[in-house]
């Protein structure tokens, strides 16, 4: 018999070296003669608990009881009973004697007495936690007594351990035996190892060894008495030393007092069954017990009950002990979300709980679940993740964002829901710094190019603001190709006043990225037109932006003139206003439902209006005071505009410059294939502004009034036009030159080239009108200064006549 039990316990192992676990430091307390050690797995380092029981004689009664406990713990399974992992019996020499040790490996647990001291709970929170723990132990005892017809024999504080999730579990099965009440002929002890139980924990009939009375009693009689002893030790805070102490009820809660007295009834048959205690006791009816119980049966609840519960959970979590929330509720909630039993409102609760975790614990316990949720097809889950991305976005690593998170989020850019498109757009403010340059150039900028012509005006506005904020994360080549086109060609020509204002603000906020040529030839001409915009806020921003960029040009001129620095003319000069502009754009993008505070410089007058357009949930209802939102589709027909030569790009903005149209369907998402928006007809004033923006300003009449236009108005030859087109930065928005029927002037090419080089406006000057005058003589040149004057007079007279 001994060899059989030894084989059951030890298996094939013959020593501690066969135990696949490391044994660490012991705890200060354990049940009976056992020693409770901390331990770890040799395979993966996961924590475990190791219980050891030693004896010098293989026939020692303690070892025999220990083998009984191992067998019972291995075969009895219940959520509130300690989980068995491994066991082994080892022999070692201790001097001249042989020492036998039984090892039991279980899930990692801590003695209840030590965990209570560690938590340090008081008053109501302590009572709530005790109620939850007693509820769990009552379920375990009821399972043994009523379902398995087993008697534990020694329920007390020492026989309770606590898991890492603060669950209470019953162990110490050395005394555990079957209840043989159906065998009245039996005369021996029903509990073979009852001598291991302290006399203070024994009921009267067990103290008298009245086994006949015990067999006539219900199966729960002995363990109900032990459960009463457990209640006394918990609330009194002292270990029971004699039975008479149980009569002191000063520390017992009033809601539990009557049940406590029935558990300790002197008549075994009248003792309260633990199953009835669970059903009827009002002590177990508190917020903690109800919350955990609901989570345990969450899969059985309908969607209405789940939504109602999860909407209340954030407030309930504030009233529950913080340690229990983080170690018990949070893992349960994360598991429910991961496996689909929890609904979207649970995200709010789990993120609020997660905010109470240290950063290291958050990254280990919660972040993996959040990353998995991005792959969910549930639209509500996706919305919840995007709405709260600022709470966990900083914890995401760049590699995880680029490889696992962004591919799932990017699907929201083209979603049919405008609300989801806007949330996806706003999330990029947090995620863009973690994206690789490849992802930003080949994917993100394509989506932003489409969103800048979105049907929702607030999305168009937010796209411009986002581009201004993420410009710092783009490389120089991408910034040069994208920013000016995005802000001038699209944002400044938008029919929505806040979108035009956002374009001006974005240009000012990114002014350090433009060289002086771009400012003078592409940015200022587009902003100046908006100084007569119908919207007062746009006009105000335009005037302030003109002042800022003129100041930059002036600073550049002064530095070049004084030769303080070399090559400054081609470098943008940032101003102190940039930081505040960028900060304003960020706050207007991230603050939802709150208007941005007044910011200096450009944002002073319009921060309230832009903020409302950015954060209004009902995007279709965004309006601007005093401005007509509609405009004719022809007023922003970008597809008619020619484009200059620039490096080939696939981000959407490069295509408007180089005019390349690819036959592949995947590449047709840039500027060249965007259809103009069909919106109500704009006001005459706004239509005039947009018409001016679409064509370059002609200075021929102005030149004719100020000085004789000798050769600057002469039509260029084909080769000369081709050479200047390469350097024409207005190529992407300039109107093509019309064909003329007038005959060219007979002027020497060298003189013409010299004059054109001094005229920076030659590239956008309108062609001379058709005239019927005869060609000038071929001999006119530098030797005859009066000839150009005559030719100019004739042209002026003819032009005025037409």
UniProtKB/TrEMBL annotation:
PROSITE patterns: HEAT_REPEAT, PROTEIN_KINASE_DOM. One of its GO terms (molecular function) is ATP binding. It comes from the Eukaryota. Residues 631-728, 751-802 are annotated as: Disordered. Residues 661-671 have a biased composition (Basic and acidic residues). Residues 2-284 form the Protein kinase domain. HEAT repeats lie at residues 523-559. This is Protein kinase domain-containing protein. It comes from Trapa incisa.
